[in-house]
Amino acid sequence: MGMEVEIRGLLHIARAFISSNSEAEAERLLMDIIPMSRFRGKVYTVGGFTRDQLLGIESKDLDVVVEEDGGSKKITRYIHNMFPKETSAPRQLGSAYPIWQINFKRDIEFNGKTYGTLGAEVQFADTQKESYPDDKSRQRVVEYGTLDEDIKRRDFTANMLLRDLTTGELKDLTGKSINDIKRGILRGHPGVDFDEIMRQDPIRLLRLVRFQAKYGWRVPLDVIKTVKKNSARIKTVSGERIRDELVKVMKVGKLAQAIRFMKTLGLLRYVMPEVEAMSGTEQEYSRGSHQEGDVFKHTMLVLRSAKPGVVNQLAALLHDVGKPDTQEVMGGVIRFLGHEKVSGEIAEAIMRRLKFERKDIKAVRKMVEMHMRPHHFVRQDAGPRALRRFVREVGEELVDAVLDLAEADSLGNLPSENEIPRLRQMIREVQNVPVEEKPPLDGNEIQKVLGIGPGPEVGRAVQFLRDRMDELAGAGRKMTKSEAIRLLREEYEWWTKEG
Fold first, then answer.
1. 215 and 192 in contact (C-beta within 8 Å)?
2. Which long-range contacts (CB under 8 A, 24 or more apart) does 346-354 make?
3. Count of Cβ atoms closer than 10 Å to residue 264 Cβ
4. pTM value?
């Protein structure tokens, strides 16, 4: 009884460090279950969840290790048997690895307490040791290992901190993890060859970039040298895995920091050589614009002002990626004629290579190809009709995103003249009457009205109707079908009479 009271007291202290999300609630539940189970003294949280707790940051990735051969399978079955209605059946994540996951389908009532576990996903793994028999591939062989061996196979000390789910105490087997997390230092286990860690699984090269960008942590010189030495190994990593690391950075709006660091480490030339090529591509700054420097420097400033999110960040990164291929010097002036279209094509190629979703590829390409239009509207003092056509061509769902990109582009041009907010207000005013994408008549109906067959004249008639729709919208009206027929007959009166 005395030991039970002592354990409960330690758990109470541990919970002071835990946030209130569903994964944290799942951990709280585990700390009530495990001390009284046969898994007592064998189960630990590890990695990002424990690290973020120490930093006071809410984390969703709850990873648990069990120091027992086959322990992850056994403990997930144990939990599922305790709460069969509240949890999913355990499933193994990859037949070659002892990693099992359970999902919490409901909150849980246990020992008179309520745990807000609904939605939590928890992964359990046996403690492992690993080897890479073929130096030219990344195929690894894993087998059961001790807790110490499991920690030594991990990437950075910041991800090696454990929490004992029996006592609630932090366990720092490296002797460096707690200090490195608090001081913000990224480095490897003091007793392991860091060069071998990076070489064996080169996705860790990008994980280093992600952690540095996300947290702004310091990377010691010896670590930088090791990454540079192994940078070419990133070529063996699949586009999907590279994409996943970049997405995590973009979601928090830190792609600019990541790209700069990738360039410093020699990774950018392998991951996105098209972006590396922007460095040294000079812009026209003799007449007072682009005093920030070359295309790469300009892009980093644009990216710094871009909103978080995959589409926003990638569009900002790639909006001028076609400039190296379109640069011309005419009369001593540097120009990039048609760079928007080329940039859009290159952006799509990069995103396809990295296996991004089709909808994101489509959105980024359109944003990149349209990013100069708002600047032209400002210079030409465009009227409502031109603005409504712009909204139609971009699509209502991307108008704000394109304007955001154009505004970031303005802020990245030193000295900055940001007139996009005024344009944004003008566009909102024309949107008071919704912009109709299609005229009231389709192509077949237009052919019947005009007595013509398929051909380019149908397209011109569609555009004619769209222009008239925009004029009517300026007066707060929508075009009816009968009105469209009348306008077509009036415009093409000579044609219909001949017909």
1. no
2. 346/274, 346/318, 346/321, 346/322, 347/314, 347/315, 347/318, 347/321, 350/272, 350/274, 350/318, 350/321, 351/314, 353/239, 354/239, 354/240, 354/242, 354/243, 354/246
3. 14
4. 0.81
Tokens of 14: 């541990």
Rg (CA), the chain: 30
- How deeply is 40 buried, as exposed, middle or buried, from its count of CB atoms within 10 A (0-12, 13-18, 19+)? middle
Token look-up 């009457």 returns 433
Residues in a beta bridge with 334: 329
Please report where in the chains the tokens 């835990």 appear, as a residue.
Answer: 18
410-436 pLDDT, tens per residue? 888 866 678 888 888 888 877 776 666
DSSP letters for 112-179: TEEE--TT-EEEEEE-EEEE-S-TTS---EEEE--HHHHHHTSS-GGG--EEETTT--EE-SSSSHHH
- The model's pLDDT over 125-167, given as tens digits with 9 standing for 90+, comes to 999 998 776 666 567 778 899 999 999 999 999 999 999 999 9
**Widest Cα–Cα separation across the chain:** 104
State the residue for tokens 């860790």: 204
Supply 80's token pair.
Answer: 């599922």
Task: Give, for 333, the enclosing helix (H) or strand (E).
Answer: strand 333-335
Measured in residues, the chain has a length of 499
Alpha-carbon distance 100 to 92, whole Å? 4
Domains, in order of start, for the chain: 2-189 (3.30.460.10), 195-271 (1.10.110.30), 297-430 (no CATH), 443-498 (no CATH)
Nearest-5° angle of CA 141, CA 147, CA 151?
70
